[in-house]
TrEMBL record:
Residues 79-155 form the YCII-related domain. This is YCII-related domain-containing protein. InterPro entries: Dimeric_a/b-barrel, Sec-metab_biosynth-assoc, YCII. Pfam families: YCII.
């Protein structure tokens, strides 16, 4: 055994009562034998390492695998000046048009900027050509409230909506 010194530490522990502690009600109690403690601690750490390694493969996989990517599309509209006044007769149709896809979990988020210079809709599980066709059918586009739009592919790796 390499230069190991066995030590014994002693803790003075009072025996508590409702009265003051005096020298007569204090006992000496061995606190720890360092050599024995070292052996027990080493065994405990080894068992914890084995338990941790075998515990939950899914948790271990989460720590080592790259995050999953959810493929989405971003649809960005640019609005005409004065959109707040001009959209009123077409708003219900516009919202119903996109709500159909929201109900099918294909529209994750959608809304206008503040102030309303344009809007963004986040879509998932739908192809670009389908989005193009939906844009052309949107009452805002059909009535000239959206002079331009962009569809971008978006790789989402973080968020509660994916």
């Amino acid at each position: 055994m390499p230069n190991m010194v066995a030590c014994r530490l002693v803790q003075i522990e009072p025996h508590f009562s409702r009265h003051e502690t005096t020298a007569t009600n204090v006992a000496k109690k061995p606190l720890i034998d360092l050599y024995s403690h070292h052996r027990r601690a080493s065994a405990w750490f080894a068992s914890m390492a084995e338990t941790s390694a075998a515990a939950d493969p899914a948790e271990k996989k989460q720590k080592t695998d790259p995050p999953a990517v959810s493929k989405c599309l971003l649809l960005q509209y640019d609005y005409v000046e004065g959109i707040l006044e001009k959209r009123a007769p077409h708003r219900a149709g516009h919202l119903a048009h996109w709500k159909r896809l929201a109900d099918a979990s294909q529209v994750l988020l959608g809304g206008a900027f503040d102030p309303p210079s344009g809007a963004v809709i986040v879509l998932r599980g739908i192809e670009r050509d389908e989005v193009e066709a939906l844009v052309k059918e949107d009452p805002y586009v059909a009535n000239g409230l959206v002079p331009s739009y962009v569809i971008k592919e978006w790789n989402v790796v973080l968020g509660s909506a994916i």
